[in-house]
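I'd like us to work through together how a protein chain folds, taking it slowly. To get us started, please write out a protein record for me. Go ahead whenever you are ready, and we will take it from there:
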Amino acid sequence: MSDFLSYWYFHIPNFVLGALMYTCFGVFLLDIFFRPESKNPIYRTFHRVVDPYYRFLSPITPGFIPPFLISLYAAFWTVVFRLLLYMLFFYFGLLPQISAT
């Protein structure tokens, strides 16, 4: 637990981006089984979580991407953001250290 507290500045953004990435994958799977006008509460909750992120990515989203693939596109960009986060912390020497215990 002390390792987490020592490197909270890395772990918390990484966790949030990871949760967002898996939520985007979940939306893609739910989009396969449900129609966009579905009243399913799980479907609607997942979309409420990722729709603001889709709006954030809309300026860099090409127009030729079909609507059902936007969640995979968002998941791809989330992976890119996580890699950039890792590289940024690596560059500044702020990554958590691996213990030999």
